[in-house]
């Protein structure tokens, strides 16, 4: 484990550390002053590599970081923090981004829950419009960029009402000739992660994975309840409670669109964020949902569809083995 940077420490003769403001699976995030541009504050995301990994894997991961940082530095969108610099110091890599003031949506969700109220649907849909614009921009790049970690804590509401999608720690560039080092990158946050993002391969991850996470985030914001994660839903499809059973004030259109985005199989989700946004805002009809739930009265869950893909098959067989081991233990006793 690398030591935490000290306050007042200066990196690269330019970035003066103020304090550590966050910590994720890949390292810390620091608030710093840019000493070359007076008054400018920035966020430094530190990337930490597991020293237990083989040296060649760490080197591949660093090369991947540099490729992705180069791509992110070219992005310019009002709902994304601007990446202005990246560099390495010894075993550490750093990404320098604009500091985004304000509260993240997880904090606003917690405040609403403490006050025993729900976030207004109209307000959440206005945020969703902005988030969709950011994702559409990322997905339209050549090659496409998949964020892979959309969740309330990675969405910040600035004081003037602008939403920013932050933390590119799990970003994936969809270059067909490149392989993402998933052992370094991690798998996202379970509550918002689609089934295809589990496991050691990124072969099944694409822009529809972001659509699932986007839908799961909106589910949480609009119900004050976290959605059942994909692993639980795989084994028990009815575990995902329709939104209006939790918050009856929501419109049927909003519920239907979000459940469409959260379909278990990627082929059953919207193909693009624009399709999802249009369904969410009433600009297109949401198709009949193929999600299995007795509450929704739709077609049965198809186990064979999921077993056709390696991550899903692995999950299913793992669950079966654990069940048999539990049964054998009970019989032995």
Helix/strand layout:
Blueprint: E1 10-11, E2 15-24, E3 27-34, E4 41-47, H1 55-73, E5 83-89, E6 92-98, E7 103-104, H2 105-114, H3 121-139, E8 145-146, E9 155-157, E10 163-165, E11 172-173, H4 182-185, H5 207-223, H6 230-235, H7 243-246, H8 252-261, H9 273-280, H10 303-307, H11 310-332
Antiparallel strand pairs: 1-2, 2-3, 3-4, 4-6, 5-6, 7-9, 8-11, 9-10
Helix pairs in contact: 3-5, 3-9, 5-8, 8-9
| Computed Rg | 21 Å
Number of domains: 2
> Strand percentage, roughly?
15-25%
Per CATH, which architecture of the largest domain? Answer: Orthogonal Bundle
Distance between the termini: 42 Å
Structural category: alpha+beta
Q: Describe the strand arrangement of the main beta sheet, using strand numbers.
A: 1-2-3-4-6-5
What is the string of helix and strand elements? Answer: EEEEHEEEHHEEEEHHHHHHHH
CATH class of the largest domain: Mainly Alpha
Helix fraction bin: 25-40%
**Average pLDDT across residues?**
83
The name CATH uses for the topology of the largest domain is Transferase(Phosphotransferase), domain 1
For this structure, what is the CATH homologous superfamily of the largest domain? Transferase(Phosphotransferase) domain 1
Number of helices: 11
Sheet of most strands = 6 strands, antiparallel
Would you identify the regions where 5 or more consecutive residues have pLDDT less than 50? 176-187, 291-303
Q: Tell me the number of strands.
A: 11
**Which word captures the global form?**
globular
